[in-house]
Structures are given as structure tokens and as C-alpha cells.
């Protein structure tokens, strides 16, 4: 009896070790990638004549030195998280969405037009309706490359990039035409911006005197919803099956083109919600440059989060903090802001490269686990063999 208890305890400890080992295998390469990127960034700072320690200290101070800096990092993380959720869905179906910039623009355009057209609605109706309309606008913009991919085999990278250019030109047309602020026209400024949105559509502020709005909570809730969608629903299972092995999924009767188009459509919808949150949560009007590069930074955050909705939550906050700290570092040590873009690019390269290292570690660990299981099975057989023989003899 004591031998059986010991074997059971050994199995429990091994299962716990496996769980923590899997976490370490996933986290270690990401930490190494970030550390390597920061190390190369320090070398670049030295070439620019700046003190790396002072630069990185100012970056940390910019994020954690004040309530404003910390909340601003959460504000920056909100669109990154929303865009990254769409990227996670698309990557799980083995398609790549580079069109988040244009989908953010479409969501922001729809949010601006809809809230101005229905400004008399109460906020309890106008806010969710605006979010839904922004989602549908972004989803429609993602559906176009999805159909081109499904029906004609058009490369989604090329089509989504071209859709970005069309969206930007459409925004410029609208901001210099139907959506231009009439007050600016009257004053003779002719600024490329829309009229100020009605206050009832503004997202509530979570912390007074800051820009942190309720969209941050919405983004976290949607991350949990996407996790449940991908890992706890039939549609999510089929999307992941298509991404893991399209041929096997097709053999099993799963319409691969349909789910690839669906994933691009959903990715566009989440990017559209990011555009809505920027308009009704931060700017309160549509401006040129509303995307702020979130469409591309969201890809970086999604990769760093392991293309997992829950892993994306801390990853988006990390990159939001990086964006906020970059402004502080630029002012403190007088370095170009392009350095942060370089750091992000380096992180992408190291994260992608670390995937190979992670797979090697995982394979080695699986071999160790299998060896331990065989050894444990042998011990269990030895422990139960005599007792079994005694029972037969009796």
C-alpha cells in the first residue's frame, strides 16, 4: 500500500514539474529575446553618445515614476491588445493579417460617423452600438482579403497591405470632405479632423485626470472571450486545426478556405474595435494618424505573447510601457525615437528565432519525461508483481 501511495505521489510531483517546465520553456526564450534586444539597444545608445543606464532608468521612470505614466502605458496597451487578439486568431488559422492599420482606420471612421449621426441617443445605447458598428466596419475590411484568399488564392499579405493604403486615402478624403470639422472651416483653419464627438459616447475614465478609459477593461474581457472561443468552441477548434495542418483538416471535412476567411474577418473586427476605442476613449474626434502604428506594433505584441490571448495581456502592457518609456527616454538623453522602432524589430527577430530554441528544449524535456515515465512504470511493476503473485497463489 505504501508503495502505491509513493508511486501516486511521484506521478503528482512529475505532473507539477511538467506544468512548471512547460511554462519555463515558453517564458525563457522570450526573456532571452527581450534581454538580447535591450543589450543591442545599449550598444546602439553608446554609439549615439548616450549612457545606456541613464537611458533605461529614464524609461522605467517614465512608466513607474508617476500615476500618469503608468496609466498611459495601459492606454497604449489597449489598442495593442485588441489588435493582437485579431492577430492571434489569424495566425491560428495559418494566415497573416498585415491590414490592421487600415482596419483601425475603418473602425474609427465608422465610430465617428455613427456617433455624430445618432448623437441624440443616450450613452447606454450609443456606446455599445458604436463599438458594434466599428467591429463590423473592421470585419468588412478584413473580409475582402479573406474572400480573395479563399476564392482566388491571393496572398493575404499583399492584399491586406494594399487595403491599408486604400483605408488611409479614404480617411483623408472623409476628413477633408463630409467629416471635416465645420467649426474649423468657419474659422479658416481647415484642419484635417472631425467634429468633436458627443459626450455621451465618450468612454468613462477609470482614473480621474488621466486618459485611462473603460476600453482597457473591455480589451481584457475580450481576451478571455477569445481564449474561450479558440479553445472551448467547435469553431475555434476548427480554426486551430486548419492552422496546424490544412491537409488533415480538409481530409476531416473542414472547409479550410472558409475558416481562413473567417479568421481574417474576425481579425479585422478586433482591429476595428481598437479604432473605436481610440476615437471615443482617447481623442474624442477623428484625427490624421489615429492608428499611431498600433496595427504593426500589435503584431509584435502578439508574437511576444506566444500568439495566445491570455499571454497577450502582459505582452501588450509591456510594449505599451515601452512606447511610453521611449518618450521619456527621448527627452532625457536626447536619442531619436526611431530607436524604439529598432528595438521592437530586434525583439521580433529574437522572438521568432527563439522559437527554434524553444522547440529544442521542449523535445529534450519530452524525452526526459518519457524516460522518467518508463522508469516509474518499471518500479510500479516490480512493486505490484509479488503481491499479485501472492493473490493468485492464495
Any overview of this molecule?
By secondary structure, the chain is mostly helical. It has two domains: 103 residues, no CATH class; 251 residues, ABC transporter involved in vitamin B12 uptake, BtuC, CATH 1.10.3470. It is 80% helix and 0% strand. It has 14 helices and no strands. Helix 3 crosses helix 13, helix 4 runs parallel beside helix 6 and helix 5 packs across helix 6. It is globular. It starts with a helix and ends with a helix. The C terminus is likely disordered.
- Span from first to last CA? 18 Å
Q: What is the alpha-carbon Rg in Å?
A: 26 Å
Query: Approximately how much beta-strand content do the residues carry?
Result: under 5%
Question: What number of domains?
Answer: 2
Low-confidence stretches: 14-23, 387-394
Helix count, DSSP H or I runs of 4 or more residues:
14
Mean pLDDT: 84
CATH class of the largest domain: Mainly Alpha
Number of DSSP-assigned strands? 0
Structural class by sheet pairing and helices: mainly alpha
Assembly category: single chain
Q: Helicity level, as a percent range?
A: over 70%
Morphology: globular
- In the CATH hierarchy, what is the architecture of the largest domain at level 2? Orthogonal Bundle
Amino acid at each position: 500500500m505504501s508503495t502505491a501511495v509513493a508511486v501516486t505521489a511521484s506521478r503528482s510531483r512529475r505532473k507539477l514539474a511538467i506544468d512548471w517546465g512547460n511554462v519555463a520553456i515558453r517564458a525563457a526564450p522570450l526573456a532571452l529575446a527581450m534581454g538580447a534586444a535591450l543589450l543591442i539597444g545599449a550598444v546602439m545608445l553608446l554609439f549615439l553618445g548616450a549612457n545606456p543606464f541613464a537611458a533605461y532608468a529614464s524609461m522605467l521612470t517614465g512608466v513607474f515614476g508617476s500615476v500618469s505614466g503608468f496609466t498611459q502605458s495601459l492606454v497604449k496597451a489597449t489598442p495593442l491588445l485588441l489588435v493582437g487578439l485579431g492577430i492571434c486568431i489569424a495566425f491560428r488559422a495559418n494566415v497573416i493579417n498585415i491590414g490592421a492599420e487600415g482596419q483601425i482606420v475603418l473602425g474609427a471612421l465608422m465610430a465617428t460617423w455613427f456617433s455624430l449621426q445618432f448623437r441624440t441617443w443616450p450613452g447606454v445605447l450609443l456606446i455599445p452600438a458604436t463599438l458594434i458598428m466599428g467591429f463590423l466596419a473592421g470585419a468588412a475590411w478584413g473580409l475582402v482579403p479573406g474572400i480573395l484568399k479563399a476564392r482566388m488564392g491571393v496572398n493575404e499579405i499583399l492584399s491586406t497591405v494594399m487595403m491599408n493604403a486604400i483605408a488611409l486615402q479614404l480617411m483623408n478624403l472623409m476628413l477633408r470632405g463630409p467629416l471635416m470639422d465645420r467649426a474649423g472651416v468657419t474659422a479658416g483653419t481647415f484642419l484635417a479632423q472631425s467634429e468633436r464627438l458627443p459626450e455621451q459616447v465618450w468612454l468613462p475614465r477609470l482614473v480621474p485626470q488621466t486618459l485611462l478609459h473603460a476600453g482597457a477593461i473591455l480589451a481584457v474581457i475580450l481576451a478571455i472571450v477569445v481564449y474561450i472561443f479558440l479553445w472551448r468552441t467547435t469553431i475555434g477548434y476548427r480554426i486551430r486545426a486548419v492552422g496546424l495542418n490544412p491537409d488533415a483538416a480538409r481530409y476531416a471535412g473542414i472547409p479550410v478556405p472558409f475558416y481562413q476567411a473567417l479568421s481574417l474577418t474576425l481579425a479585422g473586427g478586433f482591429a476595428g474595435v481598437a479604432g473605436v476605442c481610440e476615437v471615443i476613449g482617447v481623442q474624442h474626434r477623428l484625427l490624421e494618424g489615429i492608428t499611431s502604428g498600433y496595427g504593426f506594433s500589435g503584431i509584435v505584441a502578439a508574437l511576444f505573447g506566444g500568439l495566445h490571448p491570455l499571454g497577450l495581456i502582459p505582452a501588450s502592457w509591456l510594449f505599451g510601457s515601452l512606447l511610453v518609456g521611449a518618450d521619456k527616454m527621448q527627452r532625457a538623453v536626447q536619442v531619436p525615437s526611431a530607436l524604439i522602432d529598432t528595438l521592437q524589430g530586434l525583439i521580433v527577430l529574437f522572438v521568432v528565432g527563439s522559437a527554434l530554441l524553444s522547440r529544442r528544449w521542449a523535445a529534450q524535456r519530452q524525452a526526459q519525461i518519457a524516460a522518467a515515465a518508463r522508469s516509474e512504470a518499471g518500479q510500479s511493476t516490480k512493486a505490484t508483481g509479488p503481491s499479485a503473485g501472492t493473490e493468485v497463489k492464495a
